[in-house]
Structure formats: structure tokens, C-alpha cells
Design brief:
The chain is an alpha+beta fold and about 100 residues long. It has three helices and three strands; from the N terminus they run H-E-H-E-E-H. Helix 1 crosses helix 2.
Length: about 100
């Protein structure tokens, strides 16, 4: 695909994901580092908020290039304006160290 065709494709994908997902839903989208500009542009145009970028480190590097990539970028987006549901609640249930020492 040309860059324009790829941007049109990504825009269509993000538009459809938003249409068929609930407000505030979180989406994990994998993309190669070479297309960071395209995926970020398409996501923002469709009304997504970038929450984070995670790196998935794989056991073995991919074949077919001089540098064998052992990672994949996972973009974390929130759809719409509504708050997302935090089922993990990291840190909510932990006791601070000072309180546990008293």
C-alpha cells in the first residue's frame, strides 16, 4: 500500500472500532515502529486518546531482516470522552509501608 492508502485503511479501521465499541473502551493495537506517525494520526482523527505505548518483548527475533526485531509496539487507546473502567485498580488495595509499620 502507498502511505495514503495505508492512512485511509487505518482511518477506516479506527472509525469502525469506535462505531462498534462502547464509550470509554480501551483498545490495544499492535503496530511496527515504522508506522507510529500513521497510527497516531489515524487514532486521533477518529477521536481516540492515547493512554500508553507498551512494548511486548518476544522470546525470539523475527526472520527476514538484518536486525531481528524481538519487540512489538502495543498502542493503548481510549475511545470517546467517557471515563474507562479500571478493573485492575493498581495500588488501590495496597497498604502504605508507613501504616503497616505502626
Amino acid at each position: 500500500m502507498t502511505t495514503t492508502e495505508f492512512m485511509d485503511f487505518l482511518s477506516a479501521v479506527f472509525t469502525l472500532m469506535r462505531k462498534y465499541s462502547g464509550e470509554g473502551s480501551i483498545h490495544f493495537v499492535c503496530m511496527d515502529w515504522r508506522h507510529v506517525l500513521e497510527i497516531e494520526t489515524a487514532a486521533r482523527q477518529a477521536g481516540y486518546e492515547t493512554k500508553n505505548v507498551c512494548i511486548w518483548v518476544k522470546d525470539n527475533g523475527g526472520m527476514g531482516s538484518f536486525y531481528r526485531s524481538r519487540r512489538e509496539m502495543v498502542f493503548v487507546y481510549k475511545s470517546g470522552e467517557c471515563p474507562h473502567t479500571n478493573n485492575i485498580e493498581l495500588g488501590k488495595w495496597s497498604t502504605p509501608i508507613i501504616e503497616s509499620m505502626i
